[in-house]
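Example record

Each entry pairs one chain with its bound ligand, flavin-adenine dinucleotide.
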Amino acid sequence: MKTSRTQVKRIPKRGHYDQETVYSILDAGLICHVGFAMEGQPVVIPTAYGRIENQLFIHGSPASRMLKSLQQGIEVCVTVTLLDGLVLARSAMHHSMNYRSVVLFGTAELVSDREEKLKALYAFTEHVMPGRWAETREPNGQELQGTTVLALPIEEASAKIRTGPPVDDAADYSLPHWAGVIPLRMQVGEPIEDPQLAAGIGVPTHVERYVERSVGMANSLKS
Ligand SMILES: Cc1cc2nc3c(=O)[nH]c(=O)nc-3n(C[C@H](O)[C@H](O)[C@H](O)COP(=O)(O)OP(=O)(O)OC[C@H]3O[C@@H](n4cnc5c(N)ncnc54)[C@H](O)[C@@H]3O)c2cc1C
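Structure tokens for the complex follow.
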């Protein structure tokens, strides 16, 4: 995965190139940012994604400019960023953030085979909400036809990770300013029932699990 494009040059000790690290960040994220050039104009578009082994899938309307452009086989750069904390230093200049991020280069391919497309949409749905696919109506032929799915190989990728306290200049450690880390986590709220929900349907187990797991993670940050 380490190439001349993915080699982390700024603070190289924060760079990682192994599959396990890259996949773990991709699997923990919910959105990616897709960067590409259109007639010389750089564009970066946020979108959701899924992963099966070494392929990242994005999907959307066939009218999407992003999906139409990427189908042409142009070079694309996808990033995923997980923000883990605000790092407050004694000096203004040494403030930072704790994060895990991935930068991925490559070219995307159209997924046109029906079964492959369904697999990709399954992976996409399960990535966002594990257990969801089994408890929803599957896409029908018309919906499948009206959805473009693209696959991007996860081959040329780098991860960059910052953890830990601030790093101040030696002389600044005696300054009377508070320094440390404020952990950050996306907050998950209580599920809000659709006002049009049919009678007698309770919150399903996979949704309860998602909320419980997320609240558990938030509590472990406090302790
Ligand atoms: C939440 C967050 C906040 C940040 N804030 C700042 C900031 O305020 N100022 C600042 O200068 N930098 C910041 N960074 C770091 C920033 O992402 C770059 O790593 C850094 O600016 C160096 O950029 P460069 O183009 O010189 O990298 P280079 O090291 O020249 O990049 C070479 C290659 O390394 C890899 N790479 C570089 N950065 C990353 C990354 N973040 N994740 C995965 N692979 C990477 C890519 O493959 C890239 O092509 C932040 C990162 C995150 C995730």
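The longest helix spans residues 205-222.
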